[in-house]
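Lay summary. Proteins are chains of building blocks that fold into shapes, and those shapes determine what they do. In this project we predict the shape from the chain. Here is one chain we studied, written as its sequence of building blocks.
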Amino acid sequence: LSLKLGQKLNEGKTKQIFELADEPGHVLVQSKDQITAGNAARKDQMEGKAAIANRTTSCVFKLLQEAGIKTAFVRQQSEKAFVAARCEMIPIEWVCRRVATGSFLKRNPGVKEGYRFYPLKMEMFFKDDANNDPQWSEEQLLETKLSLAGLTIGRCEVDIMNRSTVAIFEVLERAWATQNCTLVDMKIEFGVNVSTKEIVLADVIDNDSWRLWPAGDRSQQKDKQVYRDLKEVTPEAMQMVKRNFEWVSESVKRLLEPQASGRVVVLMGSISDTAHCEKIRKACGSYGIPCELRVTSAHKGPDETLRIKAEYEGDGVPTVFVAVAGRSNGLGPVMSGNTVYPVINCPPITPNWGAQDIWSSLRMPSGLGCSTVLSPEAAAQFAAQIFGLSDHLVWSKLRASMLNTWVSLKQADKKLQACSL
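And here is the predicted shape, written in a compact code that computers can read:
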């Protein structure tokens, strides 16, 4: 499928950007077979690099997008190109570090390689090749009063990019951990989407963007640092670099696969509770967790309740039970006393008797560990948090949702301040 290319908008060391004649607001990002280091002081052709880089960045953006992070990525178009929303780029490289190495050690003498940052360490570098991308402070960025696509980069925007960088790093760190790989550090860039005026993750994230140490061991590094560290560039050395890049582009596909699949089973005491249960099912869907609804009453049919329980315990799928029963909740406590799986009570509380009914979900005999969460959406979220411990894709959706909530509060506050000025 060939696209009608408009004019070339930009060309960098490793890619070209074209307007798309038939898709206003979209651009084509085309990778080149070139690898560079030290501000292009070292520069080589690497056959196949464009395809490898494009595969890598497309996978990484898909992972982030499915989690719910806002990015410029639209779709992978061909072997060497992807389509993205047109952005005006913010000329800052945002660097996020978990482990101290590289330039951080030079700038902070006395810190040993391998020092771990809790929380993550954030740094900013202004994109200025002539001055070798100097490190900038927040104050310098704020005082520059950059304006892109009609958006002025002020306190609110800087805070959003800072928070987003941390969340993006954490999502990718979790994903790489499933392949027993340490994400040491990485750099990303943001742009302002010209159509929506939103700040989004833009540019690319590929093997030039991060340091990756399998099993946390620097001597096994797989990223572009291998090329930077070469004493001399020989054909054999370039083959080794290429093998590393290929390994990363293959491994990154596995980051999109769920590690463990679980399910939520909602048991309701009566069919009249369906609307409440549907809210739980819908919320589970937003985390990508399968959810089944069953009707059973522990008061009126305890044998059937336990038979249903045995069915879900016996097929080996990790399960969280949610008990939805009005009036006196016998369902949750009976389940909780008879299964090792987690049980969440989510009773549909009514105004007249709710204050009394709730005690049947709260005050338990000894030996019962069921929790009680009143909001159906929150009950699904709690189940997702349990699965997120072992499934990085669920964890990522929770993490992105936390970021997006924070960002919308920040934007609401900015909007309100602008109105009252």
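What the prediction tells us: The chain has 13 helices and 21 strands.
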